[in-house]
Amino acid sequence: MARILFIYPPISKKERYSSDIGNSGGRQIPLGIYYLAGYMLSKGYEVQVIDAEAENLTAEEIVQRVGVFKPNFIGIGSTTVAFHRALEVAHEIKAKFSLPIILGGPHITSNYQHAMSYPVFDYGVYGEGEITMHELCEALLSNAALHNIQGVIYREEGQPVKNEPRPFIEDLDTLPFPAYELIPDINKYTPAPSAYKTLPVRSLITSRGCPGQCTFCDKNIFGSKYRRRSAKNIFDEIILLRDQYGVKEIDFVDDTFLVDKKRVYELFALLDEANIKLDWSCRARIRDLHDDEFVAFIKKNGCWKILLGIESGDDQILKEIRKNTTVEAIRHSVLACRKHKIKTAGFFIIGHPSETTETIEKTIKFALSLPLDDVVATINTPIPGSVQYRNAKNYGTLDETDWSQFNYWRPVFVPHGLTKEILLQKHKELYRRFYMRPCILMRYALSLFGKGGIKRIITLIKSALFLVKT
Q1: Is the dihedral of CA 39, 103, 62, 79 positive or negative?
Q2: Phi then psi for 241, rounded to 5 degrees?
Q3: What digits encode the pLDDT tens for the residues 354-367?
Q4: In angstroms, rounded to a whole number, what is the distance separating the alpha carbons of residues 396 and 417?
Q5: CA pair distance 115, 109, nearest whole angstrom
Q6: Which SS3 state, helix, strand or coil, does residue 124 take?
Q7: Contact residues for 405 (Cβ-Cβ < 8 A; gap 6+)
Q8: pTM for the full model?
Q9: What tens digit of pLDDT does each residue of 389-402 get?
Q10: Which of 86, 141, 153, 453 satisfies CB 3.0 to 4.6 Å to 9 for a cystine?
């Protein structure tokens, strides 16, 4: 039986967020890696997964585990911000073992020439990885040619060769569930202090591909076509999580969970028929909350919080970044949620192309004017594969000297007319002005007496350093 070891690199919260605000973030199961693991298990492979971030492992400790498991293949998944850690782990493994190392994930998908410039990565899998990973491993085991395997990057005479892309998986129900059984301690994964109502809570992905056209997004892995799992398939995974892991709340982490209203109605009809009641949260587009009857339905069926991609309080910038919404529409959707007592968190971005201090101030004031319960503000980062990355130098300066800084919390892109110092100042200012209001402070104080209050106190004290430091 062939063995494959999947590794999620050991990036710390400090590296990921570049500030103390990372202490308020939760830790989610890296579902992408566990989907790959589940698929390879279904094909008869022996599989292990090392989430080095969750276990706080060093590269040396990872190497020790490689020696114990003795895999035929190493698979490393990496985002752009974690690439330096993926590279460190690959170097340590290569120093001890002559194992083929396969790199996958967002960074190689969007920037394969940079990723494959490092010889420690023998092969690359770009795009949607399950079928490609299996076909690549099978070919390597049988010494077959690689040039016909879609989605693979390999080398000829030292130079990377990128095969044609693999078509997206149309029927997502054919994929096994993530290999939860391979998680050593599922309790290592905890939500952010304001991101749950009932513990334990687990993340669940019900679709791939986003129909939105936002210029700051990299959609190279899953594409723009919205592909959905069936309501029955989602229901079955919820039953698994409830029965085997005691899950009482679901966080639907799709980019746009509410796009297909018919599927939402079908899913909760199945849950209602089984007499299952769960609290849940999700991410949604502004336009998906314009139907008051639908908002009332999801509230009745357990939705307690929705995360909304607002991004800016300036209509012209919303148009330029292709959000396909307006300030007025955003306000309408947030008020609709408030009417039905669904909490809302707004995502905002500071430093869009053509941003000015005036438009940033409009965004801050807009955030304060909305009845939001939470905000998440990031600094605009043109990720490789996005429209903004291709056009960044037309609108400002982009520093690509250190990929570890591409974490949405450091200003690697500075629009013309602004400075790094202004972006950092305004980023922190949005948080301060939102959270230091008496109404917000009182709400958080009261939440400490609810379920999970002790955990909230610890994480909030740590993250508060971000607001008080100059």
Answers
A1: negative
A2: -65, -40
A3: 999 999 999 999 99
A4: 8
A5: 9
A6: strand
A7: 18, 81, 399, 412
A8: 0.92
A9: 999 999 999 999 99
A10: 86
